[in-house]
């Protein structure tokens, strides 16, 4: 008998503006074998964002209903808006043996850690806080007030990086992608070795 390998849940987290979205997009372009969960949010769509592609855009009432109906694996309020991960997509993909990546903020990542301790937690870190601010300003999607709020949150989020399995510096997008791919591959090898070990043990038991 052999054990069926489930997919990995990869949680990529880190402060706003560090480059989570950019790195995930680059991983997709490379064709890295990961499925991307689409979050629900009460934030208004930015220009060019499409419902069901970038986010599922919800009203506060609809979001509250999702929480009450247990439809979210985790959720968090972040700079005045709610964000959450629909649970069904994650569970079904993992059961089917597919790896899933969540690109979420730090509070949500801590909730996933309580529910899915076996997930792989990767903290994406900026080279320094000056560069982080530079990236948020450069993106041009936030007002001055919101930039300051996001920087305040970022500083407290940086203190939580010790809760993660890995810290990946996003100095250059392609290098960050290489590091993430290597971490996922190493985790698969580790799980493969464990499966092999337990399959042999079980075989010995049965003889
Ligand atoms: N907890 C949680 N955070 C999320 C989720 N989806 C997105 N986020 C995070 O919410 C924060 C704000 O997202 P957004 O408004 O799209 O801004 P941006 O990611 O900084 O461009 C980011 O740190 C996202 O990673 C989710 O489903 N759950
Ligand atoms: N390694 C990098 N070097 C320079 N700029 C980057 C890097 N990664 C991302 N950026 C830029 O930083 C800004 C924020 O990136 P984004 O992916 O939106 O961050 P997040 O999803 O973490 O909020 C974008 O303008 C993006 O082009």
TrEMBL record:
Sequence positions that bind ATP: 14-21
Domain Guanylate kinase-like: 7-185
Short name of one Pfam family: Guanylate_kin
Its EC number(s): 2.7.4.8
Main location: cytoplasm
Subcellular location: Cytoplasm
Record key words, sorted: ATP-binding, Cytoplasm, Kinase, Nucleotide-binding, Transferase
GO molecular function term, any single one: GMP kinase activity
Catalyzed reactions: GMP + ATP = GDP + ADP
Similarity-based family: Belongs to the guanylate kinase family.
HAMAP family, per the entry: Guanylate_kinase
Function: Essential for recycling GMP and indirectly, cGMP.
Name of the molecule in the record: Guanylate kinase
Source organism phylogeny: Bacteria, Bacillati, Bacillota, Bacilli, Bacillales
């Amino acid at each position: 008998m052999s054990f069926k390998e489930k997919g990995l849940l990869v949680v990529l987290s880190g402060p706003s503006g560090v480059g989570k979205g950019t790195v995930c997009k680059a991983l997709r372009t490379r064709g890295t074998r990961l499925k991307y969960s689409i979050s629900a949010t009460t934030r208004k769509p930015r220009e060019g964002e499409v419902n069901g592609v970038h986010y599922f855009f919800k009203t506060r009432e609809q979001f509250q209903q999702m929480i009450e109906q247990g439809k979210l694996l985790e959720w968090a309020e972040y700079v005045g808006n709610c964000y959450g991960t629909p649970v069904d997509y994650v569970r079904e993909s993992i059961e089917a043996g597919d790896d899933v990546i969540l690109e979420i903020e730090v509070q949500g990542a801590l909730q996933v850690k309580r529910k899915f301790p076996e997930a792989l937690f990767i903290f994406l870190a900026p080279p320094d806080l000056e560069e982080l601010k530079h990236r948020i300003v450069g993106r041009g999607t936030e007002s001055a007030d919101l930039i300051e709020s996001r920087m305040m949150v970022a500083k407290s989020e940086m203190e939580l990086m010790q809760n993660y399995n890995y810290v990946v510096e996003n100095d250059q997008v392609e290098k960050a992608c290489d590091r993430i791919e290597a971490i996922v591959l190493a985790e698969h090898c580790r799980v493969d070795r464990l499966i092999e070990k337990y399959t042999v043990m079980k075989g010995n038991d049965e003889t």
